[in-house]
Design a protein that fits this description.
By secondary structure, the chain is α+β, with helices and mostly antiparallel strands. The chain contains twelve helices and eleven strands. The strands form two sheets. Strands 4, 5, 6, 7, 8, 9, 10 and 11 form an eight-stranded mixed beta sheet that branches. Helix 5 packs antiparallel against helix 6, helix 10 runs antiparallel to helix 11 and helix 11 packs antiparallel against helix 12. It is elongated, with a radius of gyration of 33 Å.
Length: 351
């Protein structure tokens, strides 16, 4: 400040200190130049003020601000920022019981196969370490594709995508790709690899808050959610990794960009028309993906024949698919179904 004053400027500084033994006193200083009759600087006047109380208050204010920021960050882990945005709320403080909205979105469900038997082999600490390491590996795939995690249900993930259906599908594919790397890392340290199933559906959702006076939570209510969950469960039955509904398929910008095939038609509660189910195999091993793509037309022709009740013709095509791809679990399931249907028909004819 003195240097500035002797340049003819008024100056202030609040970063000075006086040390008296172990005591440090923060000071604020004001310096003003004094000019003579010729306009030259004759001398400068300096005034000092003890600002200990002010510095203490500033420190407390900064601490409070940091704590508030950390608190908001913690809240965002429990109530996603995107959920607040969908409810048109700027802060968790603005959310009230009964707040709700309706949106068209895509829902992604994922679950670890045979998690119960796996968890029984682990201690409590090992279980939580495993779940958290797995979930941490999957989370970026969702966030990077414009989705957010609505909730964790044990080892299961429910994620929402308010943008395009492509975002949800890309997230699902990326989760499976990340799983390959995750399993590679597990194998290196002697752990067995894990498998997951993913189901995706698109439709109208009701989002809002439910609860009572002492406990409130965000939730999603819709048949869209139920079908996504059902598709995830169906991945176990068919031995595949990723299934999407016709509703998601019809909302894709360009379905030809993906490796997929129709594998079933489901009767859905409240719907008079069955919903087509598609397997997406972009994340399969390259050699499996290649042979599934090569047999796609043949498989879908066989499925159509099966649907029409032409089981003897259908089984021939399913058998041809299996000759080219013996690991095709879906074709093998339909081959068995054809055999069962044909036996049933033969018994009926005999009677």
């Amino acid at each position: 400040p003195l240097v500035q004053a002797f340049k003819g400027e008024n100056a202030t500084a609040d970063d000075l200190e006086i040390r008296q033994g172990n005591k440090i006193t923060p000071l604020e200083v004001w310096v003003t130049p004094i000019f003579d009759e010729k306009g030259n600087i004759a001398y400068a006047i300096a005034a000092f003020q003890d600002i200990t109380d002010r510095k203490k208050a500033e420190t407390e204010r900064l601490k409070f601000t940091n704590e508030l920021f950390e608190l908001n960050q913690s809240f965002s882990r429990f109530v996603p920022r995107q959920f607040l945005q969908l409810l048109d709320k700027k802060s968790i403080l603005d959310v009230k019981l009964g707040d709700q909205t309706q949106k068209e979105m895509s829902v992604l469900f994922s679950d670890i196969r045979d998690f119960t038997s796996l968890s029984e082999q682990l201690t409590t600490e090992e279980n939580f370490k495993f779940i958290n390491s797995y979930l941490s590996s999957m989370e970026p795939a969702i966030i990077e594709n414009n989705g957010f995690i609505d909730k964790y249900i044990g080892d299961a993930i429910m994620a929402l995508f308010s943008g395009s259906a492509d975002d949800a599908l890309k997230a699902g594919i990326n989760m499976l790709q990340r799983l390959n790397q995750y399993n590679h890392n597990r194998s290196r340290v002697g752990y067995i690899p894990i498998k997951i199933g993913i189901g995706i559906n698109t439709g109208s959702l009701m989002l809002g808050t439910v609860g009572g006076a002492s406990r409130m939570d965000s939730t999603v209510i819709s048949d869209t959610v139920n079908l996504a969950s059902r598709l995830e469960e169906l991945t176990k039955s068919y031995g595949v990794s990723l299934l999407i509904s016709h509703y998601t398929f019809s909302h894709l910008k360009d379905a030809n960009k993906y490796s997929l095939r129709v594998i079933d038609r489901l009767k859905v509660k409240g719907k008079s028309i069955a919903v087509s189910v598609y397997e997406v195999f972009d994340a399969d091993l390259p050699e499996i993906r290649e042979v599934k793509s090569a047999t796609k037309t043949l498989f879908e022709q066989a499925l159509l024949l099966y649907t029409l009740g032409a089981f003897s013709e259908a089984i021939k095509l399913f058998t041809t698919c299996l000759s080219q791809n013996p690991t095709d679990t879906v074709a093998r399931i339909y081959q068995f179904r054809c055999q069962r249907k044909m036996r049933s028909l033969n018994r009926g004819i005999k009677h």
